[in-house]
Structure formats: structure tokens, C-alpha cells
Amino acid sequence: MKISVDFDLCKSNAVCMASAPEIFEVRDDGYLYILQEEPDETHRQAVEEAASLCPTRAITVEG
Amino acid sequence: MERIAIVGASLAGLRCAESLRREGFTGALTIVGAEEHLPYDRPPLSKEFLTAEFEAERLALRAAPYEDLKADLILGQRAQSLNLEARSITLASGGEVDFDGLVIATGAAPRSLAIADGISGVMTLRTLDDAARLKAAIEERKRICVIGAGFIGSEVAATARGLGLNVTVLEAGDQPMLRGVGPIIGETLAELHRSNGVDLRTGVEIESIEQIGEEVRVNIAGEASVDCDLVLLAVGAAPVTQWLESSGLTLDDGVVCDATLLAAPGVVCAGDVARWPNPLFGGESMRVEHWTNAVEQGMHAAKRLLSDDESAPEFSTVPFVWSEQYGIKIQAAGRFSGEDRMEVVHSGTDDARLVAIFERHGGISGVIGFSEPRRVMQYRRLIGAGTPFDEALGASL
């Protein structure tokens, strides 16, 4: 699985961070950081939830 | 189950449809929507759509082609009534939709005020058509009066200020937005409007609204009236349940569901219209009009409809809402009121950043943040985990 974020869409609401804190982190600078771009399958449910719940639909999961 | 009907073609209904297919439902799927438009995203209607930063096409909620969903979309048709015994919905056009399983996702509609009836300069904002009308009016006019300083009212006020309009906001309560959050947060919210040039008046009682030619006059008890070019009425929304009045379902400010979102055998609810006991908050009966809730409930309702009763999981969530005004991101999660103990756990050197947490029954129950998305989400997790308040207070996030 490969995660990509469209940073033109991302507004750093950090909803993804609630679903998958090991993958997504919004830092004090207000920007989102992807901690693992190709996480293992154990994270799939959390990552897909994060993508579904992103208010700006900025997260894409491939594979 | 061979035929599933979803009534409501917005966020909750669409996400439910997508989940039904993802969960392996291969039967006939019908989606009924009151609006002509394909499902679109509402939060930008009070912000990027009004400023013309986003065109309507950009609001489309589904990225993949609709053919892939293999659903029969009936758009521009309101559901008129539900006959549970016959398993049938009657549409306003007279048509009927038969089903084995039903998803109720009809959302909410703006509340109106009797004193605003028949005044052409008064608008509400919920749909894309509403937003297009408001946008056209804002482009032509100079002065807007917003009645109600909730989320929609506050966002439109901020957007209109950004476009250079003269903005007056009238609020019946003592504070804008997030009513009853205590003086610290309330004052921060009020100051945000005032420092951006909005004439915010709280604790006002509106006596009447008059259309005088092209102008609208809003008369306020004991105060000078407001003359403007248009009025946005933003005094909240009510769940759309009129079509269910003779259905036999229990209605009480929403459709009453059990903790799994089931309203009757083979009938589930999702989104603004659903009232359910939230297990994370001691079974408190909730109806939540927030975006993430519509997605979560849409997905949950799909699974619930397809599952056996014994195996059905309950729906738990820490309600979350965000808003953006004057470049500030305002986020809130959980439950709170002015009665609850509140502690400010973080405030930035510039006073635009702030995080406050709330206590109920010894636990952390809510969080509000200004431009602090990371901390809000961390506290939201603590709320979901049932963390004692003192522990949350000492968490130094």
C-alpha cells in the first residue's frame, strides 16, 4: 500500500492523525507529515479510515 | 436482502452506498435525493464557494465514476412517505420505490423564523442552490446582516468580511458559536469577529424584519435597527423527518435509533437525521450535524444493515467539528457546556492559539482548539479512551 497526500488540498485538520497516528502527524508548524509512506498491511484499516474521513479528501491510498 | 433504498443523496447517503458495495452487497441499490445535483460537499459552501475559489465541479463528493456504484440514482425527487409494512417509499412525484433494506439519510434543513416569512431579501444556506443565490447577492451588494452566530453564520460573516462587505451579526445568545462554552472561549470567538471589523451584537431580540424597496431593515428590541441589502438567516437546522410522520418510526428531533443505528428491522439511519445513544458518553442521546459523523455513520449503517442482529457492533464516536474563520482553524470535539469545569491547557504567544479541555464525571469530555489541530486530535483520543480529567490535564501534549 502506498499513501499520497495532495498538499494543495490538505488543510491540516488532523482528522487522519486521530485515525492513524502512526502514519500521519500534524506538527506545531501546522503541516501534515507522512511518517510512513508505504506502511505494512496491519495499518490498512486505519489508513483507509483516515482517507475516508479526510474533510478535504486529500489522502489517496494505492495498492 | 435483495433491494436496498437510500433516502438522502448527500455525504452520509453516498458513503453508505459506497460501503454497501465494498461490503459485498450485489443487489439492487436505489438512492433518492431531493436536490437535482449529484452528491456534493457542503462545508465549502460558506467559504471557498462564496469567494469563487472553488467552482461547483470541485465540490463533487465521489471521485470514481457513478457507473461503478451500480446504483439507480433518483435525483430531484423528495420522498413523501414511508410504508414500513409494504416496504415501500412514495416519492413526491407519485412514484414508488420498494425495498428490503432502508437507509434514512435525509439530513437537516435550515430553521426559519416566522418574522422572516415572505421577505425577499432574507436567505438561508444549506444547498448548492442556496449558496449560488447567496454568492450572487454578495457580489452585487455591500451590506449583509447575519442572524445567528453559529457555525454557518460565523463562517459567512468571515467570508463576507474577506470580500469587503459591511457585516453585522446578530446573536440571541451571549456568545457566538459553540454556545455556552464559558467566558474565555466565548470572548475569544467574539473578539475574532470584532477585530476583523464585524459589528457583532449579542443578546439581541429581533422584533421584526421589513423589506423596504431594495433594502432590508431588521428591527431589534431596545436598540437601533440594522439596515442592509441582504439578510442571512442562520439559526440552526432541523432534521428532515416530515416524510416519516405516518411511518410508525419513533421521531424525537431526529429518527430515534438504537446504539447500532437501527431504527426498525431492516431500517438504519445515518447523518444529521439520526438520533442514537452514544456508548462513549454513557449512552447520551445525540444527534450530530457534523461532517465526519455523516461519513462514520454512513459507513456504519451499511455494515449494520448487512449484518445479523447478534453480531452488530454499536456506533461510538467522539463528535468532531471544525470551522475556519479569518484564517483561524477552530476545532472542537466531544461534549462540553458552560457548566462543565474548563481548563486552558495551552495558549500560544500570539493569542490566536488556544486549547481548552472540559470535565464531566471526572473524565475529559471535550476539547476546543484554535489553530491547534495536533493537540485537539490528541485530546480527542483521550476523550475516546475515557481518560480521567486529571490525567489529561497532566498529559502535557
Descriptive labels:
heterodimer; A: 63 residues; alpha+beta; Alpha-Beta Plaits; two-stranded antiparallel sheet; two-stranded antiparallel ribbon; 2 helices; 22% strand; globular; B: 397 residues; alpha/beta; FAD/NAD(P)-binding domain; Enolase-like, domain 1; six-stranded mixed β-sheet; five-stranded parallel β-sheet; 7 helices; 27 strands; 31% strand; oxidoreductase (chain B); FAD/NAD-bd_sf (chain B); FAD-oxidoreductase/Apoptosis (chain B)
Plain-language structure description:
Chain B: Its cofactor is FAD. Chain B: Residues 321-392 form the Reductase C-terminal domain. Chain B: GO terms for molecular function: oxidoreductase activity, acting on NAD(P)H. The complex is a heterodimer of chains A (63) and B (397). With 63 residues, chain A is an alpha+beta fold. Chain A has a single domain (2-62), classed as 2-Layer Sandwich (Alpha-Beta Plaits). Chain A is built from two helices and four strands; from the N terminus they run βαββαβ. Chain A has helices at 15-19, 44-53; strands spanning 2-5, 24-26, 32-34, 59-62. In chain A, the strands form two sheets. In chain A, strands 1-4 form a two-stranded antiparallel ribbon. The longest helix of chain A is centred in the last third of the chain and has 10 residues, at 44-53. With 397 residues, chain B is an alpha/beta fold. Chain B has three domains: 3-109 and 237-311, 3-Layer(bba) Sandwich (FAD/NAD(P)-binding domain), CATH 3.50.50; 112-233, 3-Layer(bba) Sandwich (FAD/NAD(P)-binding domain); 327-393, Enolase-like, domain 1 (2-Layer Sandwich), CATH 3.30.390. In chain B, the strands form seven sheets. In chain B, strands 3-2-1-7-20-19 form a six-stranded mixed sheet, with helices on one face. Chain B has a five-stranded parallel sheet with strand order 9-16-10-11-12, covered by helices on one side. Chain B has a five-stranded antiparallel sheet with strand order 23-24-27-26-25. Chain B starts with a strand and ends with a helix. The interface between A and B is medium-sized, with 17 and 20 residues.
